[in-house]
Each structure stands twice: as C-alpha cells, then as structure tokens.
Automatic annotation (TrEMBL):
Gene3D superfamilies: 3.30.1330.230. PANTHER family: RIBOSOMAL PROTEIN S12 METHYLTHIOTRANSFERASE ACCESSORY FACTOR YCAO. This is Ribosomal protein S12 methylthiotransferase accessory factor. GO terms for molecular function: transferase activity. Coiled coil: none annotated. Residues 1-21 are annotated as: Disordered. Residues 79-464 form the YcaO domain. Keywords: Ribonucleoprotein, Ribosomal protein, Transferase. The keyword Ribonucleoprotein applies. GO terms for cellular component: ribosome. InterPro entries: YcaO-like_dom. It comes from Spinactinospora alkalitolerans. The keyword Membrane does not apply. It comes from the Bacteria.
Amino acid sequence: MVGGEGAGPLPLPPAPGNAAWSGARERELPLAEAERRVHAEIRALGWRSRYRVLDEDEPTATQCELWHSDGTEVPYGLGSGKGLSAPARVGAQFEALEHALSGPLVFDSLPVRLCDAADLLSGPFGADRAVRDAARQPGARLACLRHSALDGGPDFDVPLFLWAPWYPVPTPGMLERRSRLGDTADYRSMLSYSVNTGCAIGATDDEALLHALNEWAERDAFSLFLLCGVYDRGPMPARIPREALPGFLRERLDRAAAVVGGPVVLLDLTTDLGVPVVMAYAPALAGSSARYYGLGASLSGETAVERAVTEFVQGELLAGVVAEHAAAPRERPARRPAERPTFDQVVAEHDIAAAVRERLAGHPRLLACAHLDFADRLADAPVAGVPPETVPPGTPVARQRAAVVERIAAAGHRVAAHRLAVLEHGTTVVQVQCPGLERFHLITKGHLALPGERGRRLRARDRV
C-alpha cells in the first residue's frame, strides 16, 4: 500500500491509542498527536511525505520518502518504521526527518569549529583509535562540533567524521567544503570508524536524547557480543525462551518466525551499562550475510524484546525492497553529487553482502562476525527470563534519560549532545556522543573498527 501526507491518493487511517505503540513509555506525545506533529513539521519545511507499507500483516514495516515541493528528493530523506501499522507509519516519517536533518542538508547551519587533532588527545577522545590516527598527521586540523555535557562534566569537541559518514567521503563536493573550512585531515584511515550512532529524533529534547542514548547502549552491546562471543568464541549470552515471554511478545516472535519460515531466537546482550539490550536472531538462516537479526534497547526489558523482534521483521521486509531494487531494470539517473544521493542510490547501498564477503574472505573470524555465524554455539547459551524493568512504569521520559546518562557515566564514559535541529513545532534532532563505547558492530558492514580500551578490557576479563 502506498500513501502520503499531501502526496498520495489514500487517506491516512485513524491512529490507535498509545497502547499499540511499542515503546510508548519513552514517548512524550500520544500516537495520534505525534502523527499530527510530524505532518505539521514536514509541511512547515515545505516538504511532502510519501510512504509505502511493506506488508499487510502485523507487525510490519513502512518506508517513507520526503520530497521538496518542486518534486525533487530531499537528500537522505528516507526512513523506515516498525511495529503495528500506525506506529510504523509515524515512525517512518520521523526517521526520514531525522536522516534528512542529520545529513549534508544541515552542514551549512552547523556551528563548526576547527580543532588541532593533537589537542583532541587531551580530552575524552584521547584513547579513540580514529582520533589518534588523525593526531599522527602533522598539523592536521579537523572540523568539530561542540557538544554540551549531559553528565555534569565539561563540554567537549566532537569531530564531525565520527558521527557523519557523509563528511569524510572524498567526493569533489565534500573535498571542496573541507578545504573551504580549513579541515586538513586525511580521512582515509578513519572511514571505518564513522557511524551515525547517537543521531536521533524526538517530539521533545528529552525524547530524542533518550533514543540516542539507548542506541549507544544497543550498538555497544552488539559490538561486545561480536567481539567477545563470536570473534573470541567466549561465553555466550543468555537465551530467552519463548515460554518466558508474555502473550503479546509471543505473538510478535511468532510473526518474526513466519516472515523467515524458521525459528527466531532471543539473546540477552545486556552489558555492565545496565540498559537491557536484546537480539533477535534466525539461526537457520544467518551465516551467509549480515541479515536475520534485530536489536532493541530500553530501560524496559519487555520493550527491548519487542524492539528487537519488530526490528527483525522490519529488516527482512526492507531486505525484500533491496532485492526488488537490485532486480529491477532502471534508467541511469540524472547525475547527482555523491554527497546528495538519490533514494535509489541509498537503497542500493544496502546491497552489500557480496562486497563484505570479498573484503573479509581472508579473515574467517572477522567474516563470522560480519555474517553472524554463531548458530552452532546456541546450545552453550544459558537460559534466562526477559530482562527486568529497570525503572518503574510511568517514569517520566526526562528521568529515563537521566538514568541512562547516569549508567553510562558510572561505567566511566563521558556523555554529551549537540542539537542539530529544533523544528517549528518543537521536534528535535540530536547528536549524542559517549566516547569509549564500542563501534566494532561496523564489521557487519565490512568495516573494521578496531576495539578500544573498553573492548580490550572486557575481552581480557572473559579470557580469565
């Protein structure tokens, strides 16, 4: 089904109440109001949205595109949502806004400052491998954004390349922009560390920050599992059996199994950060590509499970879109700058399985991480229940945000944020950094982000 806000022929069906919204406890607006808000923000920007529901059964996934009023694509304005139909539709539109407003479109509005790479070593990125690579370049200066501390410490500068993968790519347009700024770094050795972790959108500042922080906890946990459990073949995380789930989560899990035609296993990846993280995994199908998994993180264990399962379904439905795109004959599109890709190019960039296999063919342990090749070890996983509810139901979003900051800080990591955009009706896009949390999960994209101090310490612990 295809529809849109101001673009498609189909009217939007009425949205159900918040009870149907996965993660409603982390939202500041009821679902119907959130939908009105996102439509108002898109209209205020002079854009239009168009969405496509990928499957009529639930949970499902929806894909959203953002278009300028003249019919041209908004750069990076492509998003997807998951869950029941209405939340998936709303989530897709918010995500499309997030991607557009954390991409090159906002570059000229950012208060960028130049920092000597060597000076960054005295701050929270002093142990960061990529920043240290930059500091080895004589006189290198990097474009940075000042992030405001959330943990009570001093504010600090964050290199753009760490969170904006479009920035270090050596396209003519970006090379010219970097030169104009006075950014003299050679980013070739640092590309493998660039990832948009911590970019998030919310109806309010606290909502956006909470989702960004949960994303850091999720990707750090995934990285540590791949590093310690798969690469090192260390202890397996606990498995959550179907019978441990409440009824509505059993239904979600059964839907995931039906989508792939095989069992889906849940693993508890929660780390010392104390934020529940769950992975959904299809053991009969994984091992040949970095598909067949989903992740979820939340202070609520049940919400973490639901997110992992609905992300699994979303991933499979989106994989069908990628396969459909690859098989369809297409006319060569009009020439566009590489830093302003078409939607077709963005979709095509997800078709990476063959490239990952080729890149890592000589490194079987890394390839096992990239392809999630660990099904043979599931029998070693101890059995446990659903991760706990780590804050009481009804805890305000602001307090949840503060709780995640406290947990990350207690593990020895700084936490800071920059507001990339605050829209007319209050919707906020943020960029959060937690120096020292791991990025090894990028191996699933074929990029080797070597572990930092945290990863090395936890690997050593598991070997004892």
